[in-house]
Amino acid sequence: MGEDNRIEKASMDAGYFSEDHVPWLEKQGIDAYVATGRLKHGVPVPLAPRGRIPEHLSLKDRMARKLRTVPGKAIYARRKAVVEPVFGQIQQAMGCRQFLLRGLPKMQGEWKLICLVFNLRKLFRAKQISRA
Q1: For residues 100 and 107, is the Cβ–Cβ distance under 8 A?
Q2: What is the dihedral of CA 76, 5, 53, 27, to 10 degrees?
Q3: In a structure prediction context, what are the per-residue pLDDT tens digits for the chain, which is 132 residues long?
């Protein structure tokens, strides 16, 4: 990836939060927004207190507070509009709910094939719409 395309911000679900992962992202110059756990649907998330995030908080508590700030909520909410629908469409419309092959290299190949088919379907549908 060229310097022009460097990732500056990343939002990830709780499965990616760890005491090792977040500092690694920060060392790469990536402003990370990683959920620290799952929240029940419909439960309002309280806003973070105003002011700087205290340094004495644990990494997990600092990240949770960062996600409760107005900018943090906006950045993390964008993830739902950009990434989540793709996984839902792959699972629901294409029926890809689990990998069929064993081993990391085979699984990676299978995932690339699934993504290729997903993108080809999008291109095909876009072409059909543009002809109409």
Answers
A1: no
A2: 120
A3: 455 667 888 888 877 888 998 999 999 999 999 989 887 777 877 777 888 888 899 999 999 999 988 888 889 888 777 777 888 888 888 888 899 999 999 999 999 999 999 999 888 888 888 777
2: region left, alpha or beta (phi > 0 left; psi from -120 to 50 alpha): beta
Q: Is residue 69 classed as helix, strand or coil in its secondary structure?
A: coil
What's the Cα-to-Cα distance from 109 to each of 52, 83, 89, 96, 99, rounded to whole Å? 44, 20, 19, 14, 10
Q: How many residues does the chain have?
A: 132
What's the rounded Cα separation, in Å, for the pair 8 and 27?
12
Query: What is the distance between the alpha carbons of residues 130 and 29, in angstroms, rounded to a whole number?
Result: 40
Query: Cα–Cα–Cα angle for 83, 86, 89, nearest 5°?
Result: 150
| Residue 110: partners with Cβ closer than 8 Å, 6 or more residues away | 99, 100, 101
